[in-house]
């Protein structure tokens, strides 16, 4: 029998009825002669609620204990799902991240997967069990529970698929990956195939349908991913190598809110020193520009609004622009096409849209605009590039 890893996100296991539906899907898959490993997220908004619970005790809880409380969300959903499968007369076992063999390293709350020892999972599969794994968690070298960062269950699923040499099927509350978030634009196009590279870029640039770390891991280990609706009866999106992907100029538009634009005049300080200071405070930094105006050197960069306090603590000389968003166009064929940038600037110009910054990668263009203009800009791009 072939292995398969199926992952169900929080909205797909949000209540007992949904958990029972997922259990039926797992049993059906098993009856189709598959060894089924299922990774689950915490039910609904449980993770947010657990964070709130921690905050009722401490505004700044220790990250070790925060990881411990957060890991319980996935323990509840995985045990309930195993019970639901057992109710259907099939053998099932729920495993914590540690029991499933997830060894992690790095900071609490943002830990990374070092390796997965799948001995126990494979033994249980051999004995006919459907194995349900608590996503988003593992155990570090000191024996502590760690979590992989928000949305991390996708990465748990791909890591297991890599180890078990099989596909990672990610089931969620939309039918697949679309050209635009279908909740934003109802006529968005569902994509049948998309490359790892484009998916990663979309995920980094705001398409929250998949965790970019999961796609990175999938590309590294050649794991084929499939994103589909949690009823498992509608065709979804395959994420695979580029050569399977039909080319088009621009495939997708996405957006990130809560961007902070930061500027500072460089006086008696090198740019290297400035960024060392920011790095020491672990401040999240994106696009950096250095400009010379009338012989004065200015440096500007983008960060996130939640980093503002930390940046202000470094020096009083920063100036900030808040309430800005990053709107990005992503497409594999962009690297071969000249003229895309011209079309973007023409559209923005013709519609009097003010923008602060433009950055590009080989397969994307990102524009920083006022958040109040974000929807308008997305709609203009959707129309211009027929998304
Ligand atoms: P899960 O709980 O299953 O992990 P998420 O909420 O993390 O689900 O991701 C699914 C959501 O991603 C969808 O509800 C959808 O609104 C959003 N999304 C954002 N961009 C896209 C896109 N380009 N294609 C599909 N879904 C998208
Ligand atoms: N439950 C975790 C979160 O909400 C992990 C996940 O859903 O993937 O971030
Ligand atoms: Mg998710």
TrEMBL record:
EC number of this enzyme: 2.7.2.4
Enzyme class: transferase
Record-annotated membrane-spanning stretches: none
Pfam families recorded: AA_kinase (PF00696), ACT_9 (PF22468)
Reactions it catalyzes: L-aspartate + ATP = 4-phospho-L-aspartate + ADP
Molecular function, one GO term: aspartate kinase activity
Entry annotated with the keyword Cytoplasm: no
Biological or metabolic pathway of the protein: Amino-acid biosynthesis; L-threonine biosynthesis; L-threonine from L-aspartate: step 1/5; Amino-acid biosynthesis; L-methionine biosynthesis via de novo pathway; L-homoserine from L-aspartate: step 1/3; Amino-acid biosynthesis; L-lysine biosynthesis via DAP pathway; (S)-tetrahydrodipicolinate from L-aspartate: step 1/4
Function recorded in the entry: Catalyzes the phosphorylation of the beta-carboxyl group of aspartic acid with ATP to yield 4-phospho-L-aspartate, which is involved in the branched biosynthetic pathway leading to the biosynthesis of amino acids threonine, isoleucine and methionine.
Family: Belongs to the aspartokinase family.
Protein known as: Aspartokinase
Organism this protein belongs to: Peptoniphilus ovalis
Lineage of the organism: Bacteria, Bacillati, Bacillota, Tissierellia, Tissierellales
């Amino acid at each position: 029998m072939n292995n398969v890893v199926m992952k169900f996100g929080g909205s797909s296991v949000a209540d007992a009825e949904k958990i029972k539906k997922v259990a039926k899907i797992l049993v059906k898959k098993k009856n189709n002669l598959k060894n089924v490993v299922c990774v689950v997220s915490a039910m609904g908004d449980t993770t947010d609620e657990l964070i709130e619970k921690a905050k009722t005790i401490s505004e700044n809880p220790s990250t070790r204990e925060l990881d411990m409380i957060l890991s319980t969300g996935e323990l509840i959903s995985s045990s309930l799902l195993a019970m639901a499968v057992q109710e259907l007369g099939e053998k099932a076992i729920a495993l914590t991240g540690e029991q499933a063999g997830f060894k992690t390293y790095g900071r609490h709350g943002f830990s990374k997967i070092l390796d997965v020892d799948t001995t126990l999972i494979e033994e249980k599969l051999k004995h006919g069990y459907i194995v349900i794994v608590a996503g988003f968690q593992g155990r570090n070298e000191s024996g502590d529970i760690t979590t992989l960062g928000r949305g991390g269950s996708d990465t748990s699923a791909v890591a297991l698929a890599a180890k078990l040499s099989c596909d990672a099927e990610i089931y969620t509350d939309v039918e697949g990956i679309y050209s635009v978030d279908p909740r934003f634009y109802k006529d968005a196009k569902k994509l049948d195939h998309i490359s790892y590279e484009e998916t990663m870029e979309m995920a980094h640039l705001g398409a929250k349908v998949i965790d970019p770390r999961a796609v990175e891991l999938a590309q590294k280990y050649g794991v084929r991913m499939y994103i589909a609706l949690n009823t498992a009866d509608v065709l979804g999106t395959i994420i695979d190598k580029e050569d399977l992907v039909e080319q088009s100029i621009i495939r997708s538009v996405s957006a990130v809110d809560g961007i902070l634009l930061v500027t500072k005049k460089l006086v008696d300080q090198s740019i290297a020193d400035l960024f060392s200071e920011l790095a020491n405070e672990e401040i999240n930094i994106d696009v950096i520009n250095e400009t010379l105006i009338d012989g004065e050197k200015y440096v500007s960069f983008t960060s996130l609004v939640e980093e503002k306090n930390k940046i202000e603590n470094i020096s009083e000389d920063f100036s900030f622009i808040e309430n800005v968003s990053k709107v990005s166009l992503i497409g594999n064929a962009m690297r071969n096409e000249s003229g895309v940038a011209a079309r973007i600037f023409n559209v923005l110009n013709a519609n009097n849209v003010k923008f602060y910054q433009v950055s590009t990668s080989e397969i994307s263009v990102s524009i920083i605009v006022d958040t109040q203009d974000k929807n308008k800009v997305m709609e203009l791009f959707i129309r211009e590039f027929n998304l």
